[in-house]
């Protein structure tokens, strides 16, 4: 709520910086990694919700192409149950292309269930002034303009590689919540300007330059 956000601006914001320190960081890592540093397959996740999703994926996924065996082999890079066996895994050359993205999906699922605090979901209220309008060109710019919280700080403040990685994760969490409502709000706003929401591809800025019609 707005009052909650107001309070966090006054007092709590600095507390967001580096709150995930030492033990908490280690605990979060241990939800995905064994003591030897290897990735825990999703099917063996200590988080029941993640394990269940992996079981559903293994039952319905078709990672092996033509082969119709259940996916009981877990990719060591992504943690996903990706193939029926190691032979199929090694023969699949395309899997390596999207393994990093799957690894990211796995990390996001774990993060959402890690029990950490989620300053991301303490949303800012409406803009302080009617004239404050933020363009929906990309998520980072939009969430930074509107002063949404990431897990360490306000979105847009990340500098180090590690901070940028966590900020990107926060942006993925927030954008997954806002994609639909913001798409509708965006269409309503531009429908007023363009007279017809089906003409969203004809958006122009004040100088008459064409604006991208999708949020990146
Ligand atoms: Zn994989
Ligand atoms: Zn197979």
From TrEMBL:
InterPro entries: Mss51_Znf
Domain Mitochondrial splicing suppressor 51 zinc-finger: 67-108
Protein name as it appears in the record: Mitochondrial splicing suppressor 51 zinc-finger domain-containing protein
Lineage of source species: Eukaryota, Cryptophyceae, Cryptomonadales, Hemiselmidaceae, Hemiselmis
């Amino acid at each position: 709520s707005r009052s909650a956000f107001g309070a966090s601006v006054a007092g709590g914001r600095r507390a967001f910086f580096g709150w995930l320190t030492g033990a908490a960081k280690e605990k979060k890592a241990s939800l995905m990694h064994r003591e030897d540093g290897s990735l825990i397959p999703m099917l063996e996740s200590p988080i029941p919700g993640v394990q269940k999703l992996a079981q559903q994926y293994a039952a319905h996924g078709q990672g092996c192409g033509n082969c119709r065996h259940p996916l009981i082999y877990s990719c060591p890079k992504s943690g996903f149950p990706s193939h029926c066996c190691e032979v199929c895994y090694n023969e699949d050359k395309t899997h390596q292309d999207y393994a990093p993205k799957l690894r990211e999906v796995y990390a996001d699922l774990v993060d959402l269930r890690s029990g950490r605090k989620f300053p991301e979901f303490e949303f800012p209220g409406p803009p302080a002034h009617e004239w404050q309008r933020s363009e929906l060109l990309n998520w980072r710019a939009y969430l930074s303009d509107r002063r949404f919280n990431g897990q360490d700080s306000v979105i847009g403040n990340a500098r180090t590689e590690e901070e940028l990685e966590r900020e990107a994760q926060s942006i993925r969490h927030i954008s997954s919540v806002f994609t639909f409502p913001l798409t509708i709000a965006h269409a309503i706003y531009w429908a007023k300007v363009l007279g017809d929401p089906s003409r969203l591809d004809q958006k122009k800025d004040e100088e008459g330059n064409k604006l991208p019609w999708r949020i990146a």
